[in-house]
Amino acid sequence: MAGALKRGVQGLALAGVVTLLGLLIWKVVHQTKPPKVGSTAPAFDAQRLDGSGRFALSSLQGRVRVVNFWATWCIPCKAETPTLERFWRRYRGRGVVFVGVDYNDVSGDALRFARKRGLTYPMVRDPSGKIASRYDVVAVPETFVIGRRGQLVEHFVGSIDSGDEKAIFAQTLDHTLRS
């Protein structure tokens, strides 16, 4: 009896390993390639954070776009939001649109986060991480600058809150607006 039980447990363990291997192979085969600077930025259509409908990135065709992935549980995101809001207010009159993508959060928490920090640029939800996956987001915050024709101009990994990063971000926006 003990031998049969042992073989049964070994069989279950083997089935588990085979299943995990199969999932890994499926992910590798079906994985989308991350966007590279110069390539077309992935389009998305998502629920607005405030629940007021949907937002499609393609609706901003012909405009410079900044897509920022963030989360309420992300400490650097909390520090970065005032900087993003200041850039949004500075550049929106010049045709730059910022879009915040709330990544893997509870919608109520995310909405309170945005309101508490006075964020006024458009925000969308990405509760499953599907949009972040298309952009190959590894850790929030991550910010993408997209040119008027939809090409990815720059990718910032981490907060743009430091002096050097702020300056590089502003230069990127200015250059993208001129091109």
- Classify the helix fraction into a percent range: 40-55%
Under the CATH scheme, which architecture of the largest domain would be assigned? 3-Layer(aba) Sandwich
Q: What's the order of the H and E elements?
A: HEEEHEHEHEEH
The DSSP helix count reads 5
| Low-pLDDT segments, ≥5 res | none
Domains, number:
2
Overall 3D shape: elongated
Question: What's the total count of β strands?
Answer: 7
Physical arrangement of strands within the biggest beta sheet: 5-4-3-6-7
CATH class of the largest domain: Alpha Beta
End-to-end distance: 76 Å
What name does CATH use for the topology of the largest domain? Glutaredoxin
Can you identify the CATH superfamily of the largest domain? Answer: Glutaredoxin
